Amino acid sequence: MTNTFRGVSFFVRRHFMAAPKRKIITLECTECKNRNYSSEKNTSANAERIEIMKFCPFCNKRTKHKETK
Ligand SMILES: [Zn+2]
Question: Of 2, 8, 38, 68, which has the fewest CB atoms closer than 10 Å, so is most exposed?
Fold first, then answer.
């Protein structure tokens, strides 16, 4: 009885740890504040906010795009 319970809780914990932590994020232009891109990121591998250079059609140039909340 006790051994079975331990086995199950171990399996559940492992199952949750193996599940990929993926999140849809929106990338906002830091200059005009338009949300131009959406992306998917692995939150466990990259916990910090993303900042990338991307082309903004509103600014008509490459600007820094930041992950929104
Ligand atoms: Zn812009």
Answer: 2
